[in-house]
């Protein structure tokens, strides 16, 4: 049995490094990922290596699913064009949700992954101003984080369509 681990995250650079490391782990197995942020400004989603990992994940694993919850998608569309283009290809397995105004102030950067065998990995920023967060593989902690995500999603609506219709 894997030891249960958890620790602190100190700063946005460490957060970004952990996003990359978790995506390397995720790309090796199927499962579902949940990303939460007010605007995803601090995430490395636009990096070629990150998009390549997401691409590998989707190509290798038909059960791979990604759900994003954001306060808005303007920053993603401006700062992460590679990710936006990638998402158009995988829109049938990548869903984007817009948080309601009532929960916007509660949103914290969060990344949760659960593989088909039930193994959990996640991280969550506790204070976006000081960029202090927590990472964990403890199923009890991650179950609580998942419950928070589910509660937020219930008070959200679909957002960021993958295509723009025009006349």
Q: In total, how many domains does the architecture comprise?
A: 1
Radius of gyration: 15 Å
**CATH topology call:** Endonuclease, Chain A
The total count of strands amounts to: 8
- Going across the major beta sheet, what is the strand order? 1-7-6-5-2-3-4-8
> Largest sheet, if any?
8 strands, mixed
Separation, N- and C-terminal Cα atoms: 57 Å
**CATH superfamily descriptor:** Endonuclease Chain A
Features:
eight-stranded mixed beta sheet, single chain, Endonuclease, Chain A, 6 helices, alpha+beta, 167 residues
Descriptive report:
Helix 1 (12-26) runs parallel beside helix 2. The protein has helices at 12-26, 48-60, 74-79, 81-89, 101-104, 139-154, and strands at residues 6-10, 32-37, 65-70, 94-99, 110-114, 120-127, 132-136, 156-158. It is of the alpha+beta class and 167 residues long. 38% of the residues lie in helices and 26% in strands. An eight-stranded mixed β-sheet has the order 1-7-6-5-2-3-4-8, with helices on both faces. A hairpin with a 5-residue loop joins strand 5 and strand 6 (120-127). The protein has one domain: Endonuclease Chain A (Endonuclease, Chain A), CATH 3.30.870.10.
